[in-house]
Amino acid sequence: MFVGGQEYEAGIPPRIVGGPIVAGDMVELGEDLASPRIRAIRSRETLLSRGDFGARNRARPLVANADVLLVVAAVVDPPFGGRFVDRYLAAGELGGLDCAIVLTKSDLPHDVAAIAHSIKIYERVGYPVCLGSTFDPGFVEAVRQLIDRRTAVLAGHSGVGKSSLTAALTGVDRTIGALSRGGAGRHTTSDPRLIPLPGGGAVVDTAGVRTFYLPPMHVSDLASGFPEIASAAEKCRFRGCRHMGEAGCAVDGAVAPERLDSYRRLLEIV
Length: 270
Hints:
Elements lengths: L1 E2 L2 E2 L19 E3 L8 E4 L5 E5 L7 E6 L3 E7 L7 H13 L3 E7 L7 H14 L3 E3 L5 H11 L3 E6 L5 H9 L22 E4 L5 E4 L21 H6 L24 H11 L3
Parallel strand pairs: 7-8, 7-10, 8-9, 10-12
Antiparallel strand pairs: 1-2, 3-4, 5-6, 11-12
Helix pairs in contact: 1-6
């Protein structure tokens, strides 16, 4: 917890108004600042949530009041997965955050043409994309400029380099782990923590995951997580079009096939 730029430890009651508390929450404290105790959570401007693994009909809040979601993915090891990235982007859009993509491990051998194709897909939607290696100071500086004094959430697959990037950005080592034998990575960050950036802004390094479920929503809301689909849908012939190939649907042909495939796969499970 930060008060006036100073970090404190504060007690959290078992039941708290607006809880559970997450990284980035603005809170109200009791009057005794010598032994601070949180008594309530203020309303949230933005909220990144996911579906709970144990009960996917229940949302699990992850980070509150962040400005931008940086979806961190590797070009290889683990391999880039567009549908996984799309889930995070949709969650960020639905939670009110700006979104961008950070691609790491460009120093490793990879399919350059395939990655370039994927980058064009996201840039056409309007998402900024940074490509590079966490060992390259120029790449780290490019990510820092992308954050630009805002509060940024770093989220994505296990083993893609989020903790390495956090350490390079902040100077705080969140412990970097090795990849598992399966190549999916072993996550080293279990508790999201807001870490101030030198010169302004902050990052929240979240735990790497192998699977990411969207929070529960009505099927009609899903298109809001895909800006280009929501825009194209305004020209659909019929109200309530699900963009699954219906007659008069304006989305087919107006959206990258990869993104439309992600949307349709998610539509079947939300």
